[in-house]
Amino acid sequence: MPKKILLVDDEDDVVMILQDNLEKKGYEVVVANDGLEAINKVRVEKPDLMILDINMPKVDGYKAAQIIRDSELKDKRPHLPIIMLTSRTKEKDETAGYAAGTNVYVKKPFEPKEIVKLVEGLIGQ
After folding, report:
1. CATH classification code of 4-123
2. What does 9-23 look like in DSSP terms, one character per residue?
């Protein structure tokens, strides 16, 4: 059974590039286009890892990560690895990402193969 990745971004080109690269490596990819949808899909889809943008409609990536981390503690669920993939490049943004519960903070533009390597490093294939 392939490992499941929840890819959360409101930019269609980012989603298409990452989804294609991850599926070529055998991962199942589920997509959400905003933070609220991401929170709901974590509960329903139970992904092995999430790739999360910050700047999104409804609920931003910081808040989505915090809500997911809080619900993991409350429900005694295992820690979901989160790769935050964002155009926010300031140190304060990165600090806020880690404070929200992110495992890895990656700045756009990015190399898709590097994201795949990060995924493999966090959850294997």
Report:
1. 3.40.50.2300
2. -S-HHHHHHHHHHHH
